[in-house]
Each structure stands twice: as C-alpha cells, then as structure tokens.
C-alpha cells in the first residue's frame, strides 16, 4: 500500500512524500545517524541530529545545512482534526468539576499567572481529597467555585484567558 506523508520543513516549505518513492531512494547508512544519499547523480551527506517520535519532528543536517522536518500521515491528520493530537490538553480553556463534591480550598484567583501542574483547588469527593492542577501555562480569567460550596459534575470551576 502506497502511503502519503505531508512534510513541513522549517515551518515554511510543505510537500508530500509517498512511501513508494521513499523506498526507492538510493540511500546508505554509513554510521549510526549518518547517511549518504545519491539523487540524480548528486551526492548528499545526511545526519539526524535530533528526533522526537511523539511529535514526528526531526532535526537533520544535509551537507552542513540544518533543517527541522515535521512528518504527518493520514492518521495524524485525522487525529489532529478530531482534537486528539499530542499536546491538545495544552489548549484547555476551562476546568470543570470531574465529579460532584465539596470545594475544600481554592489556591488561585482571577489574574493569577499559573504554569503546568500548579495546584488550582482541592475538591473532596467520596471522602477523598482531589487536587485539581493546571493543565497548561496561562492566566486565570475567572474562578466560579467558592470554598465550602458543593459542585455538580461538569460544573465550571475555573476559566483561563
């Protein structure tokens, strides 16, 4: 099956590569992370400097010029369109109660600057204290809950700007 990959180089140049063309490249691994490519009788030396499997992002050096390459296949595009891509949690703009409970403490107020994993509030549910932490860096827009009040599942507690 011939699979297509959307490729973005240095966040500017975009093109599509198909798996059949990639298989037919005249490339040899000379050392770990080092390759020799021959294309239309023109040689190129390629080195993989950095790779991130989760984001499919690679930094490569081709003939002493560095490039950042991001590769996306059809499944990645579908996952991204559904909002399930890696890092999608960083786009959370509000925190809702994950379960009914009692707000024991609120550690932030509107205007506070928070970072990932900053404790925001403590919600008691079924005699257990649950610390609700920030899913992203940001500024608190509003705090809807009040210390000592009960909340229902799905009730808005905190909004980010």
From TrEMBL:
Cross-referenced SUPFAM superfamilies: Single hybrid motif (SSF51230)
Keyword Ubl conjugation among record annotations: no
Coiled coil: none
Stored Pfam families: Biotin_lipoyl
Organism superkingdom: Bacteria
Residue ranges constituting the Lipoyl-binding domain according to the UniProt record: 83-161
Keywords assigned by UniProt, alphabetized: Biotin
Keyword Cell division included in the entry's annotation: no
Name of the protein in its database record: Acetyl-CoA carboxylase biotin carboxyl carrier protein subunit
Organism expressing this protein natively: Olleya sediminilitoris
């Amino acid at each position: 099956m011939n699979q297509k990959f959307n490729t973005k180089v240095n966040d500017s140049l975009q093109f599509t590569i198909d798996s059949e063309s990639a298989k037919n490249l005249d490339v040899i691994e000379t050392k770990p992370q080092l390759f020799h490519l021959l294309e239309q009788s023109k040689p190129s030396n390629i080195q993989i400097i950095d790779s991130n499997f989760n984001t499919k992002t690679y930094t490569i050096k081709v003939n002493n010029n560095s490039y950042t390459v991001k590769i996306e296949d059809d499944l990645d595009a579908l996952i991204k369109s559904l909002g399930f891509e890696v890092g999608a949690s960083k786009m959370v703009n509000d925190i809702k109660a994950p379960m009914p409970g009692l707000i024991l403490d609120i550690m932030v107020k509107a205007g506070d600057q928070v970072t990932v994993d900053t404790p925001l509030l403590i919600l008691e549910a079924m005699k257990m204290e649950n610390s609700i932490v920030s899913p992203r860096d940001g500024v608190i827009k509003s705090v809807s809950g009040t210390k000592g009040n009960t909340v229902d599942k799905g009730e808005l507690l905190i909004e980010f700007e």
